[in-house]
TrEMBL record:
Residues binding ATP, per UniProt: 32, 35, 116, 159, 162, 165, 168
InterPro entries membership: Bact_CCA-adding_enz_type3_sf, CCA-adding_enz_C, CCA-adding_enz_firmicutes, NT_sf, PolA_pol_head_dom, PolyA_RNA-bd
Enzymatic class: transferase
Domain Poly A polymerase head as annotated: residue spans: 27-147
Catalytic activity from the UniProt record: a tRNA precursor + 2 CTP + ATP = a tRNA with a 3' CCA end + 3 diphosphate; a tRNA with a 3' CCA end + 2 CTP + ATP = a tRNA with a 3' CCACCA end + 3 diphosphate
Gene Ontology molecular function terms on file: ATP binding; CCA tRNA nucleotidyltransferase activity; CCACCA tRNA nucleotidyltransferase activity; magnesium ion binding; tRNA binding
Family, similarity comment: Belongs to the tRNA nucleotidyltransferase/poly(A) polymerase family. Bacterial CCA-adding enzyme type 3 subfamily.
Protein name: CCA-adding enzyme
Domain CCA-adding enzyme C-terminal positions: 257-393
Domain of life: Bacteria
Cofactors demanded by this protein: Mg(2+)
Amino acid sequence: MKVSRMNEIFQQALPVLKEIESHGFEAYFVGGCVRDYYLNRDINDIDIAVSATPEEIKKIFKQTIDVGIDHGTVLVIHETGHFEVTTFRTDGEYSDSRRPDQVSFVRSLKEDLKRRDFTMNAMALSSSFELTDLFNGRRDIKNREIRTVGSPLERFNEDALRMLRAIRFVSQLDFNIEKDTYHAISASSSALSNVAVERKAAEVEKLLIGQAMDRSLAYAVDTGLSNFMPPLINAEITRQLKGKKWIALNFHERMVLILIIGHFSSLRECLSKWRFSNKRIKLLMLIHELVMIRQQREFLKTDIYYIGKENVEAAEKVYAVLSNQPVNTDHISACYSSMKIKNKSDLAFKGTHLIKWTGLKGGPWVKACTNQIETLILSEELENEVSEIKKWVQTKWLQK
């Protein structure tokens, strides 16, 4: 089923390759899309590498956008979709351990593939789906190994983030790191300190949603990479994760699980060091707080009403993993379905009604009264009917 879907995605881009070829240039599918094709995984992006220069590509197609023209990338706007087309290139020195100081456009596919990070990402498919695999990428995919193209020390010296990408692929693909590549990461781990936090955070986010997150984090600790990242990963966390059935958790839930296991003294300070947005930090801290509440008692209808079903479910899932219980939120869904009101818009009255019924001036009491009514409706001690609510306000609230 997945293979046919992949073929469909390739078919959408095929006219672009053939149009480039019709002008006398070479064109190939490259990188992650080829890797995922042979892994039988869903393909999200198509990357095309060509022997034509950016200027030559812009002459071939009517609509293009310069998305990274300094590095040879042009976005081709085609009737079948939008596709990034990048000229074959070789990279110069990487003085900042991030990007090459300069690139040189070449006409050789081999030279282009030689500069790539891992063998599984250095394969190319022609328009006739003929594979070019100069560095045994398919072999490494079959053996489920992550291996650099050429010298691992050179590849990591060029771009230190590749080390973190290696362990991210461990998580995503459930692969192992080939021994020479592993030793090079251990020897070069300190270079990760030169990489911007934002780039590291982007890789860690992908790592934390992978199927082999626990092994990936263990690699980060064992190779020393975790020592050159903002606080989040340590040996104790990886040890405890081994016995947890965390696979059903999403990114935010896994983050909270790690934060709780790690016993970080200041959550906000820890999360701020990862340069997460304030919105994300607030959400993670909320779920964390809810898990603390769940360790004391079960969630109530009022929790779901005031805090939100999704947030309560997230905390319930983390709590289940911490307690070594099956992850199941059906009871929360059932509780939500039984609630007479789901949010304030479901209430049969407004604050102006309370002021009119009581003859009192507006003030903090309106919110307090509303909250009490909501609680009574949720506990089914009061019907969500105007007449019933009015009667309660006039006979119970005013008599306090």
